[in-house]
Amino acid sequence: MNTTLSSSVLPQTKICCSKFSTSDHKVSGSRLYGPRHSSYSKFTFQASIVLSSSAANIKNGIVGGYYHCDPVGKKNQVGQTFCSVGVCPYDGTTVESPSHAVEEKVGVLLLNLGGPETLNDVQPFLFNLFADPDIIRLPRLFRFLQRPLARIISVLRAPKSKEGYAAIGGGSPLRKITDEQAHVLKMALEAKDMSANVYVGMRYWYPFTEEAVQQIKRDGITRLVVLPLYPQFSISTTGSSIRVLQHIFREDAYLSRLPVSIINYWYQREGYIKSMADLIEKELHTFAEPKEVIIFFSAHGVPVSYVEDAGDPYRDQMEECISLIMGELKARGIDNEHTLAYQSRVGPVQWLKPYTDEVLVQLGQKGVQSLLAVPVSFVSEHIETLEEIDMEYKELALESGIKSWGRVPALGVTSSFVTDLADAIIEALPSATAISPSRDISEDVSDDPVRYLVKMFFGSILAFFLLLSPKMITAFRNHLI
Ligand SMILES: C=CC1=C(C)c2cc3[nH]c(cc4nc(cc5[nH]c(cc1n2)c(C)c5CCC(=O)O)C(CCC(=O)O)=C4C)c(C)c3C=C
Ligand SMILES: [Fe+2]
Questions:
Q1: How far apart are CA 475 and CA 349, in angstroms?
Q2: Fewer CB within 10 Å, N side or C side of the chain?
Q3: Which amino acid residue places its CA nearest to atom 1 of ligand 1?
């Protein structure tokens, strides 16, 4: 049974851990931190998962406690990571505490992508990114090629990426912004009477998730909330970060017992939607004719196969997110036209459509005069807002006939947004449970050496032809360099 917090069990620095207990205590009182924002909810991938806890744990698009996804039916890559969404759905109440109280040390781990801090970091950063099996998703038979391929692609891609990073000052601003978000979030939690250490763990650059987790251990954290800084869930972002975390936790006796709650996505939260609407509303007023402006949502793309073959909920969540933001604007009397397109594709495969660059040209040709670009996949400024949108897409739009261009800034440390993240963390805390030591399917290596050798043999032959085929070479040249 899940339990929840009442204000009386949220003192400033100490939390009685037994209040969080999930066992058979007597319950009384009323719930304070239950699921909110039901009107915004839609749980997009519940059909392909099987809960290990009760079905009542899904409510309002929010799932409490850990459960593991069953990769039955449609192949679901999401199912290879944790799928809990944090907040405790227990519609009961406060737990009566036994007499002893143990000091609780709450930790919040912010997960993010990370970015190169100097131009010399670019190629090794890209190597880490492309070596991630959630970014370049090779069939199992070809997994042994992941790192050699990552080496080749990162070397080929580095010059183009370096140009981009050079144009925004020689490195990514992500670390600085994420550190600021961590700091402001800690203060927002304190303002809500919750004392917590906030850590930053990056997937592909410093400070790596592993480092953050070691610090969490050293600090003796007794309860952890994990908050990926991506509003929508994608296999390639939150999924990948959580998979790494799962791996680290499973290997460690202390961590595998640590109660953890993961907020897998939060695009539907009222605080986030309203904060986005605030930014858009403000920016619309900078145009001479605000009502004529097309609101152009530009989301980071993912390959179509993620969504259509692996069950990535990203596109559905993105579409719902946009409709929630537009609904909020409409409620404020703003009913501009809007459109959604996907940016930043890499490599020769099909990505989610329509593509941002193509739609910009079409809009220009159709005679659209004013356009407001709204980045929606990410909450910090980064290379794809500062270079791709502000420079490349702006130039393309103006060349295509659009006269008036604007861009909504990323949320960063906007106070209404950070306050809402603090609420999400407080809501998630009661449902923290230890990570189950179940096997990570994505790293399931065959124990049988003969099978392994056979796979390696045929895999190498196939890979040889694949890598040397003129089509592949042309594709890499056209799309990566
Ligand atoms: C090749 C596959 C990639 C997928 C899939 C992908 C998904 C994805 N990425 C973000 C957010 C960010 N990505 C950033 C940089 C970046 N991403 C890729 C590739 C994929 N991303 C590359 C090669 C790079 C490096 C930059 C470049 O060469 O273009 C960043 C920027 C970090 C920074 O340094 O500022 C962000 C942010 C999302 C949200 C997403 C899927 C939903
Ligand atoms: Fe990316």
A1: 9
A2: C
A3: 346
Q: Is 343 helix (H, G, I), strand (E, B) or coil?
A: strand
pLDDT of residue 406: 98
> Comparing C-alpha atoms, which of 140, 195, 136 is closest to residue 11?
195
Distance 236 CA to ligand 2 centre (A): 8
Is the C-beta atom of 129 inside 6 A of ligand 1? yes
Tens of pLDDT, residue by residue over 372-388, are 999 999 999 999 999 99
- 161 within ligand 1 shell (Cβ under 6 A): yes
Cα(386)–Cα(368) distance, rounded to whole angstroms? 23
CA–CA distance, 65 with 432 (Å, rounded to integer): 6
* pLDDT of 12 higher than 50: no
Rounded distance between C-alpha atoms, residue 395 and residue 413, angstroms: 28
**Atom nearest to 234 CA in ligand 1:** 42
Using omega within 30 degrees of 0 as the cis cutoff, is the peptide bond preceding 71 cis? Answer: no
Whole-prediction pTM value? 0.77
**Over pLDDT 70: what percentage of the chain?**
69
d(C-alpha 296, C-alpha 393), whole Å: 12
Q: Name which of 418, 408, 231, 411 is nearest 336 in CA terms.
A: 408
Q: Which atom of ligand 1 is least distant from the CA of 161?
A: 28
Which atom of ligand 1 is closest in space to residue 380's alpha carbon? 37
List, edge to edge, every strand of the sheet that includes 338-343.
338-343, 294-300, 370-375, 404-407
The set of long-range contacts for 118-121, using a CB threshold of 8 Å and a minimum separation of 24, is 118/170, 118/171, 119/162, 119/165, 119/166, 119/170, 119/171, 121/171, 121/205
Interval 82-112: pLDDT, tens = 333 333 222 222 223 344 467 899 999 999 9
Instruction: Calculate ∠ Cα 463-469-474, nearest 5°.
Output: 120
Distance 479 CA to ligand 1 centre (A): 15
Which residue, chain included where needed, has tokens 């994608």?
234
All residues at 6 or more sequence positions from 428 whose CB lies less than 8 Å from its CB, including other chains: 86, 87, 88, 225, 227, 261, 262, 263
pLDDT value of position 457: 59
Cα separation, 330 vs 229, in Å, equals: 27
Shortest-distance Cα residue to atom 12 of ligand 1: 113
Residue 240: what are its φ and ψ, rounded to 5°? Answer: -65, -45
Whether the predicted interface score ipTM is above 0.90: yes
Closest CA to 135 of 231, 246, 265, 240: 240
Gyration radius of the chain's alpha carbons: 23
User: With 80 as the cut, is the pLDDT of residue 305 above it?
Assistant: yes
